[in-house]
Amino acid sequence: SIRVKMLTLKLIIIYILISSSIIYLSTNLGYFDKPNKRGIHRIPTINTGGLIIYLFFLSVISLSELNYTIELIVSIGFFVCLTGFIDDRINLNPSSKIVLIIVPSIYLILNGISISDLGQYEYLGKLELGKFKIPFLLLAIGLLINATNYIDGIDGLLLIFFLNCLLYYIFLIDDIKTINLLKFFVMAGFLNLILNLLPSKNKFKVFSGDSGSLFIGFFISFMTIELYNSFDIHPAILIWPLWYPVYDFLFVSINRLINKKSIFTPDNTHLHHFIYKKFNGNIISTIVLFLLVNSSIIFLGYKISEISKLLSLSIFIIGFTLFFLIKFLLFKRFKN
Predict the structure, then answer these.
(1) 159 pLDDT above the threshold of 90
(2) CB 32 within 8 A of CB 205
(3) Measured between alpha carbons, how far is 266 from 246 in angstroms, rounded to an integer?
(4) How far apart are CA 131 and CA 70, in angstroms?
């Protein structure tokens, strides 16, 4: 419609103003991600891309009223984005970060963005959460946010994951207002991806930073809940865009425990680091491969869930076992 087209044009202008302002301020205030042993970049790079995404999302919900619940998720996500921004500045300890993420999460859960079961399955019936509902949701949300933070190690990877999720949600739902809202979010993700993939020496290159990874994890967590809660999309369908952050997070955490390391100690044992090295440091090849594999697995997972919800859930669980074995073999080969 003409109204949507006009709003789109206005939002493009707003995005340019927001991104230009954040880049200018970050450059002058020294908000950079400095090179370290784990990072793949060799020069200081602006790490406030998450603020650009969040402020754009905030602009979208300020100029339109398309889906109240999703807009509530975005508005409360301010506190998570702020937590990530502070973490990038002073490196918060894990316990402080957990508290600052749990508080806004509890607020949304108590305001109705919640579920009481994990869906109906053949032979098993409905998997009720019962009294364990709130602890389960907080644990799942916390783990997914942390898992999303883990995949922010290669330029563009986090944003490709985010765009895959948003496009999958658009495919699943049939409410035109919500679809339009998510399309505006896709626009922000795509434009940020361009900034993220600029050459290292380009002054407009921007990393998402913790403000981006934590907010995206928070948003995806509550969108998953909302899609089941309000759109009746089965969890066996919704789990598939999450396969990579969940699988990689579980492997890395288990591997650290096996090696008697703190699960909070960062390292380069993520699968995307192996792929990046396999491609001799070629970022484009790494994220193109991830895009193809991720999209294929999401599509196959969706098709399987159409056949059987229990089969979909079972394959998702079995998939982690296969992922663990493949990753373990790669890790041993890399060490040798």
Answers:
(1) yes
(2) no
(3) 16
(4) 26
